Amino acid sequence: MKLHWSPRSPYVRKVMVAAHELGLADRIQTVRTVVAMDKPVPELMRENPLSKIPTLVTEDGTILYDSAVIMEYFDSLVGGGKLIPASGPARFVELRRHALANGFLDVLIYWRTERARETPLPSMMHSYQTKLDAILPALDAEIGEIAQTPVGMAQITLAIAGDYMDFRFADLGWRERAPRFSAWQSKFRERPSMVATPVVDA
């Protein structure tokens, strides 16, 4: 399988952590692909018209994109039900928790882009701060229950969001504001799958 990849993308890291958790990492050829919101990549657009990573080309040539889709595909390769429960209430709880975790990453990505502007819009900066102020206590309140479930899409994405906060938003002091989530994330980040996929600003 070929994966369009970057060492600093949290969305790419999601699928790589999943691949390591499922024992699939050695089947993936990573292709360094530099993307930016304002610079579409023609070579990538031949496979993904959105010009976004991660984009996966499977062994039979099928093209998949969006980290959640790729993670579910990986799950299917090992029989399914590992990263996402196959059915029932547990499936929808996992999907909802993943939506929160992935939305958390979305907020951070867009916030970072706004921060980088010569003159950030105060309304947007306030919006991102307000969302973070709601997300952190919600995670802190639920992380105990999340920690009792098998490692899946939600846990992987939440752990990566914590690392991304350290990487790009260390000044916000998120760990002091969400101590239970912080303690869980600090333990999860020691898993071999996380250690094997460090964030690198390159």
From TrEMBL:
UniProt xrefs under InterPro entries: Glutathione-S-Trfase_C_sf, Glutathione_S-Trfase_N, GST_Omega/HSP26, Thioredoxin-like_sf
CDD domains associated with the record: GST_N_3 (cd03049)
Domain GST N-terminal: 1-82
PROSITE patterns: GST_NTER (PS50404)
UniProt xrefs under PANTHER family: GLUTATHIONE S-TRANSFERASE OMEGA, PTHR43968
Name of the molecule in the record: Glutathione S-transferase
